[in-house]
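Minutes, project check-in
Item: structure for the 155-residue chain
Input as provided by the requester:
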Amino acid sequence: MAASPTADLQRLTTALDSGGLPAALRLLNARTPFRFTGIYRFDGDTLRNVALFDRWTPALTRGHDAPMNETFCAITAGTNQPLEVTDGHHDPRFPWMQANAVESYCGTPIRDAGGHAVGTLCHFDFKPCESISSELPLLAHAATLFLPFLDVRHA
């Protein structure tokens, strides 16, 4: 899509309103070379999948949970900033992630009203993917739309 960020965000809002999370994630995924687009919630030491779009299996709507310390989402949580990794198995920034099945990642935090990262909106793949830094601003804006789906409860 070669439209303005406002138009892109409006398309995403329309997809979310008419088709729910699957339609919104499908639309975001179609803009990228990544196989997966997902929404994840931070839950202590576990990364909980809320919704997933898999380009190879479009009927799949949920993915697996994962140990936080084995994910690029944990890095996004720790920095509370977007993260892009095109070839994680060879990225010197993350030597501990080199054995991870996820090799490429582009994600942004989903923040609560206080600005704290409570989850992520991300694209990922098991193979290297080209840089899509141009998508990060849209992901950051889109992340605000997905906060209500995280069902975050504060003590």
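Outcome recorded: The two ends are 41 Å apart (CA to CA).
No further action items on this chain.
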